[in-house]
Amino acid sequence: MKSITTRTAIITLEKENFVRMTMREDVYLDLKDMKDNHLAEQKIASYKPHVILIDTRNSSMSSDEARKYTSSDEPTKYRLALAILFKDLSGRIGANSLINIYQPKVLTEKFEKESEAIKWLDDILSNYLK
């Protein structure tokens, strides 16, 4: 399995067109970190359309500037959909903030259960590949 490690995340190509970004434990992402992660995501997906599962269960936090960037054109241009995996109330609040305030340009959903997130992304990917 192909992977790239940045200061704040491990980005893995789980299968063709399916990327997982696992946030490292207790990290705070600034704009540079977010750009580094998105560049690694695009690179590992070979700059092709893909879905992404971002696992924030390790309690990552990000700056306002970083959250704005993650919903902009540059990091979303190859994304088909984004699933945010969280484990607690602070994770739910962070995911809700991204979805409701920053309004990503791609389908975005939050999940507590990894299996549900993967199924949702697989369904989107299957429809795209038809």
Please write out the topology.
Layout: E1 3-5, E2 9-15, E3 18-23, E4 28-29, H1 31-44, E5 50-55, E6 61-62, H2 64-70, H3 73-76, E7 79-85, H4 89-102, E8 107-111, H5 114-129
Parallel strand pairs: 3-5, 4-6, 5-7, 7-8
Antiparallel strand pairs: 1-2, 2-3
Helix pairs in contact: 1-2
Question: Can you put this structure into words, describing what you see?
Answer:
It is a single chain. This protein is an alpha/beta fold and 130 residues long. The protein contains 5 helices and 8 strands, in the order ββββαββααβαβα. Helix content is 42%, strand content 29%. The strands form 2 sheets. A 6-stranded mixed sheet has the order 1-2-3-5-7-8, with helices on both faces. The protein has a two-stranded parallel sheet with strand order 4-6. Strand 1 and strand 2 form a beta hairpin. The protein is globular.
